[in-house]
TrEMBL record:
Signal peptide: none annotated. One of its GO terms (cellular component) is plasma membrane. It comes from Nonomuraea thailandensis. Keywords: ATP-binding, Lipoprotein, Nucleotide-binding, Transport. It comes from the Bacteria. InterPro entries: AAA+_ATPase (IPR003593), ABC_transporter-like_ATP-bd (IPR003439), ABC_transporter-like_CS (IPR017871), ABC_transpr_LolD-like (IPR015854), MacB-like_ATP-bd (IPR017911), P-loop_NTPase (IPR027417). This is ABC-type lipoprotein export system ATPase subunit. The keyword Transport applies. One of its GO terms (molecular function) is ATP hydrolysis activity. Residues 25-263 form the ABC transporter domain.
Length: 306
């Protein structure tokens, strides 16, 4: 039934919901400009991203597209130049130094690509997991072993980093990141230095943290083993989210992956570069509205006057 005039008027009067609503991670028109020796680099150019609580998301993109910049902002290590970045209802742009420290200690856990960067080499695995709890003033007896067990590295509890493989070190690093029960885990190329079998174990540990502890997990990765196993892969191009691949299980248990272009709030979308190249599209395209889709064609050759 068509809405009545008064229903439409009421709808128009309702305040528009804020972008991303109460999602766990909301980036709205996020901009990060680096200035070095007078040269400006726009690493994030109005990036929009919404991630719900409990999601496991991979972020992919070419080198220099802005992935690490985004993770640094979300982890509270870096402050964006403009826009909105909100995690678990906390505004990352206006946060005080004290809140930022608390955020980094207790709300978010971080895993670097370089295994050596995640752990202190002179502490055992168990002591490494206990450290963030001691720093936050909330030591919990048995918690470190519990986490090491959950991630399948309890046998490493008494070992220091040189006595562990790269994959074991990364799984211990995940336990360290989980120590203070964060709401969010961010991992920057966590399997980048590992062979495929070990990568699988590290990814399984992240998936376990997500499924069994309900932690939201965001992984920046070039590793197809990771990006093709998550429910949602977000592609970043030139400092903006440009594509999303959603995966779901089909009727026969097969995984169906569907790729979408991201449409921002003002209607901008990035056409895949290979599509544009194939049809030699540049500068402008012709759009046509059909009943159930919009057609995009290369611009017609204008007849020349000479
Ligand atoms: N501290 C910095 N100072 C100046 N420019 C920077 C800084 N950090 C990043 N950039 C620039 O910002 C852009 C995005 O970099 P970023 O590291 O976020 O990309 P990335 O997608 O993570 O790349 P990679 O996959 O190679 O790690 C690049 O052009 C980079 O040179």
């Amino acid at each position: 039934m068509n809405p009545t005039l008064s229903e439409l008027e009421a709808k128009a009067r309702r305040p528009a919901a804020a972008f991303g609503g109460d999602a766990h991670i909301v980036c709205d028109n996020l901009v990060r400009i680096y200035k070095t020796e007078g040269v400006e680099v726009v690493a994030l150019q109005g990036l929009d991203l919404v991630i719900d609580k409990g999601e496991l998301v991979a972020i992919v993109g070419a080198s220099g597209s802005g992935k690490s910049t985004l993770l640094n902002v979300l982890s509270g290590l870096d402050v964006p130049t403009a826009g909105v970045a909100r995690v678990a209802g906390m505004d990352l742009l206006s946060m005080s130094a004290k809140d930022r420290l608390r955020y980094r200690r207790s709300v978010v856990g971080f895993i670097w690509q370089q295994t050596a960067r995640n752990l202190l080499p002179y502490l055992t695995a168990r002591e490494n997991v206990e450290l963030p709890m001691r720093l936050a003033g909330t030591p919990r007896k048995g918690r470190a072993l519990e986490l090491l067990e959950l991630l399948g590295v309890a046998s490493c509890a008494g070992r220091r980093t040189p006595e562990m493989s790269g994959g074991e070190q990364q799984r211990v690093a995940i336990a360290v990141a989980l120590a203070n029960s964060p709401q969010l885990i961010l991992a920057d190329e966590p399997t980048g230095e590992l062979d495929s079998e070990t990568s699988e174990q590290v990814f399984d540990a992240l998936r376990k943290a997500n499924r069994e502890l309900g932690v939201t997990v965001t992984i920046v990765t070039h590793d197809p083993l990771v990006s093709e196993q998550v429910d949602r892969t977000v592609g970043i191009r030139d400092g903006r989210t440009s594509s999303e691949t959603l995966r779901r299980e089909g009727a026969e248990g097969q995984i169906i992956a569907e790729e979408y272009a991201v449409l921002d709030r003002v209607g901008r979308l990035q056409l895949p570069r290979d599509f544009m190249n194939a049809l030699e599209m540049e500068r402008r395209v012709r759009l046509e509205l059909e009943s159930d889709h919009i057609g995009v064609w290369p611009a017609r050759e204008e007849p020349s006057n000479d």
